[in-house]
Please model this.
Amino acid sequence: MNDVIGNKLVKCYAKDDPAVAINIAQGHFATPQSHINYYIDVTRLKVRVDEAEEAARSLRNALLNRISTVDTIVCLDGTEVFGAFLGRELEKSDFHMTNSHETIYVVRPEENSIHQFMFRTNNRLAIEGKHVIVLAATITTGATIQQAVECTEYYGGTVEGICSIFSTQESVGGKTIYSLFSADDLPGYATYSAHDCPLCAKKIPLEAIVNGYGYSVL
Model:
């Protein structure tokens, strides 16, 4: 199969850390909540150890003097490798932990049959009474993040902040988002409602369905 999206990808470097990069491609794409004119590929930071480690250091620097206490990182979009490195970086830095083990938990919520996030009983110890960061690969509308925040709070956690590799939002539900990349890094980036998309109005076909895990060419 000819990977037309992969062939269009170009590197985009973080302004604050040129050692951190994502891949981007312009076009017409659909997310679960919207249509967008850029596909943001963060795969390298999720699956390559050296790049995940560097990105974790960068994100730790963004959190310094902004968040003081972290017990748990709740990982979305397959960011567990990145989350583990971020946890280690926070442990090495001046971040306070309130749990008796003096270590940071890294957990992933389960999505049930009606697309709600949940935590099984054996994982609730990582949430209940804990200070939590929610970590995502990409954030566009913020709907999935809001769901994750509500789930975390339902199970007794306190969300101290939200982190992501890329985000178009500065906050969700009053919680600040700390991201390595923003829409300002992508010239002309835009997100549209699926029912009011100017690219659709111009009969420009969708190229792929995308989310934090990757893309499926149509």
User: Anything to note?
Assistant: The radius of gyration is 17 Å. The helical segments are 43-47, 49-63, 80-92, 143-154, 198-201.
